[in-house]
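Q: Two folds, back to back.
A: First:
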Amino acid sequence: MKKLLIGALLAFFSVSSMAVDGYKNIKFGDTVKQVLSSKLCNFEKMPNTSGLKQMSQYGCADFKFSGKSSLVVATFIDDKFRKLIINVDPDINPLLNSLMEKYGAPNAMSSQDELNKAQVNSDEYSLFVDFDKGTVSLKVEKSKNKPVMALLIYSDINFDKELSEIKNKNLADDI
């Protein structure tokens, strides 16, 4: 009985320490072709506004999330899937509760000061909650004269590092 309990605890901690590896049937590292063939939605290539030749993005407006059509952007670096951004309902409480049920307590979130400022100045704010080592994030932003925007973001654990390395290399080539 002790061995079974110890095994279950080890399995729990080893699984809970693993970062998210993708979204549904697409995995970080999949090629553009693999992601497009997943039929997650009808992706179309987007113009490259990043200025980085290594980066490409595909978007769609027919992605189903919580029973509604949502805008989605998939980001690729060197033809490898690295990030998925889903535009979600600004009423984030049900989603936030579901994320906490699935991933546990947040790893990081906006400070209490930022939350207080958002309540006082409801015209402009940016708030976030990160789960699973930052691989799952919920961001809520409000800009003057624009509606509230809520984004659910799944990203490869090395996305920021990889992007920073590309930018540094590009700069090193120029200086």
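A: Second:
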Amino acid sequence: MERIPSGEVIVQGAGGALPWERAALSLPILCLLAAGTGMVAWTGQQSLASLALLLLLPVLVFRARRRGAAFCIAFAYYGTATRAVPGIISYFFPSLPPGASLSLWAGHTALLSLPWALALAPPAAGAARRAAMVLVAMVMVTIPPVGLFHWGSPLMVAGLLYPGWQWAGLLLTALLAALLVASQWNTRRIHMAIACLLALSAGANASYREPVPPAGWQAVSLNLGKSPELWSDDMAARRDMLADIAMRELAGGAKVVIFPESISGSSRRSQQALWQRVSEAARQRGATVLVGEESWNPARTSFHNALIGYGTARDGGGVVVSSMVPMPVGDWKFGLEEGAETNIFGSDLVALHGLNVAFSMCYEDFLLWPHRGLLAGGAGLMVSATNQWPSSGTSAETSQDRSRAALARLAGVALLTAKNR
């Protein structure tokens, strides 16, 4: 039996190693390749093409012979894909020591890496079992509980490969990743299946036409940074400015005006009187204005990270939609203290002005789990309301922008983004 040097990783199929497998790859090299994948795949604004590199993650992980090595490879990928997390935590909690921010980042990365290590097939496993375990790993990182934290999902490449194919595109992408891992067995059937999936992808892209948002729907993006202190004059001035923007959009013929997440601060400082004129103007035009707000419950023990409606939808400041999965730690406190409420098994779809709209609230842009309605084909439009001031100018902002674009493309719907930086 061939002796494999310590620290090296090699995969050999039933019919012998293929040429590219005969030379063992050391664990550091596999980790560097995984880290490079996490770095490059989520870089760039103009095209989703680099997301194709995400298909390498299962291939690299399943070159490992032991779970510890598989964990290290996955950790290298997620560590670079989520490299902006310590900085974001520092923005949310300026008094937190740097070591605590790094520990939270490392813990998050380890959580995402663990399912890949657990799903690793034994070295002697055949093609079918290895492919099945790839699918198991992808399911584990997509559904709760891990799926509520899964930033950097390799399945986001489905938006590039199978635009408009919704759940079918997601499943075909998972199957393609599994077959790529199994392709080390030099069997014609596996290679033909991969060729068929790639041909379907080429056909999907050739026939895809980028949808356009419906007329009269306007998403307002701003560069206002962090919200001022709630009771300050600066917050009052910000709210006045938002109301003025809404009035201008309505006067210009907008039917639906969408502002970024939490842009108007907390409901603990009332703003009903301020928005009364906006509400009346919207009602007269048969329009709706949606404003991001932290809507606290009467006991002031928790809040909904919500879009509040003024005009024909939920007139008078009612909640139109709220976040199902708020930002962990920053907003979602896991019940340990006052924080945002969750609705993990809720629907992302809201009927608005005769259209089923799939809403994505900030952090949800990173995830697959909250978008079940969108990917089931029930939406005619995707709306993202996000407040990205903590990640402005970082890799996290780019990752979020690319994730939401990939989701909308996979669903085959137009995307409107109301974003504050």
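Q: And?
A: The two ends are 59 Å apart (CA to CA).
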